[in-house]
Structures are given as C-alpha cells and as structure tokens.
Specification:
The chain folds into two domains: 53 residues, Homeodomain-like (Arc Repressor Mutant, subunit A, Orthogonal Bundle), CATH 1.10.10; 143 residues, Tetracycline Repressor, domain 2, CATH 1.10.357.10. It is 76% helix and 0% strand. The protein has nine helices and no strands. α5 runs parallel beside α8, α6 runs antiparallel to α7 and α8 packs antiparallel against α9. The longest helix is centred in the middle third of the chain and has 25 residues. It is elongated and about 65 Å long.
C-alpha cells in the first residue's frame, strides 16, 4: 500500500523526534532535557511532538522500548551464531563488550533511567524492571543449558558482572573493563562446567 505524502512526513517527524530524544537522553540524561530542546534539535514544532507523543514521559518510554528491542535483537543474533550453550553465553558477553568499547558509550540506558526514576510505581521505572526481568530470564535459560542446577544463581551472577562492566566501562579503560568482564564470564562458565562434570556423591 502506498503511503500518503502527509503520512510520510508524519512518520519522518516521529522518527526524527525519537532519534533526537534517544541521542540526548542517553548522552546527557533525561531530567536535564526539556521538550523545547528536543523539538528545536529535531526541527519540529511542539504541536508535532504532541501529535505523536502524549508528553515527555511517553517519549522516554518510546526511547526505552527502542533500546529494549535493540538489546533483544543483539542477544538473539549472538545466540543464533553460536552452537553450544557455553558459546552462546560467551557470544552474548562479547556483544556486551562491543557496546562498552563503542564510541560515545555512556553506560546502560536502563540503569541510567532507573537512577533518575527510582519510584517503583513510575511507568519508566516499571519499564526498566520489565527489561531487566527479561534479560535475567534469558541469561538464566542459557546458563541452564550449561548447568540446570546452578542456573538461577549463575544468572544473577552474570547480570551483576554485566552491570558492573557497564558502570565501569564509561569511567575507566573500556578495553581493560571488557577483558575483565570476559574473564569473569569464563570463570563463571568454568565453575558451572566443573560442577556438572563432578560425579554425584
């Protein structure tokens, strides 16, 4: 079906708003950025913004939803390209370090948002928790294929390793942080494999 010119303009304006908000929210924070700054840099009017988003909160939720989809795709690609369960975990870990080593890295978008919206009842905080629950469940399932008995504890361990790497990656040498994180993942996998290999007493 052919889109109308007007519809094309509206889609383009929404995409430009979201791209602009994503860039500024991630690099500078959410509370520090107002609607006027976003509309000015996206080169749209406030009326155009409100045609697509009910307000700033909805724009922030769209930003987090976009980040969530990107991370889900990243994990899916990493898993699809690996054969064994342990290699799948390693591939996910390597994809995390690719982000840490990327230009303009400013930590985890979700941890950053949670620091600004700490009320558990706030929709933005709930969006953060929903993403993290999915991430923990995904890692736990992968680790469960390495050692089902230790999967839950290992999943929590890996998420904590990841959180530490994401926080440190924008403060210290990203190469060193990435190597340290990957070493930690290897240690976790080695522990799981050793426990699986030991005969039951």
């Amino acid at each position: 079906m052919t889109r109308s010119t007007e519809g094309g303009r509206i889609s383009e304006a929404r995409a430009r708003l979201l791209a602009t908000a994503t860039r500024i929210f991630y690099t500078e924070g959410i509370h520090s950025v107002g609607i006027d700054r976003i509309t000015a840099e996206a080169q749209v009017t406030r009326a155009t913004l409100y045609r697509h988003f009910a307000g700033k909160e909805e724009l922030v939720l769209a930003y987090l939803d976009q980040a969530d989809l990107a991370i889900r795709a990243q994990v899916a690609d990493a898993v699809a390209g690996s054969r064994s369960p342990a290699e799948q975990v390693r591939a996910v870990a390597r994809s995390i370090t690719e982000g840490i080593r990327s230009p303009g890295f400013r930590g985890c978008a979700f941890l950053n948002a949670a620091a600004e919206y700490f009320d558990p009842a706030h929709p933005i905080h709930r969006a953060v928790i929903a993403h993290r629950e999915w991430f923990l469940e995904t890692l736990t399932e992968l680790l469960g294929q390495v050692n089902g008995d230790e999967a839950e504890a290992a999943g929590r361990h890996l998420v904590m390793l990841r959180d530490g790497a994401m926080a440190a990656g924008c403060l210290f040498d990203p190469e060193l942080i990435s190597a340290t994180f990957l070493n930690g993942v290897e240690g976790l996998l080695r522990t799981l494999t050793d426990k699986t290999a030991k005969p039951a007493v």
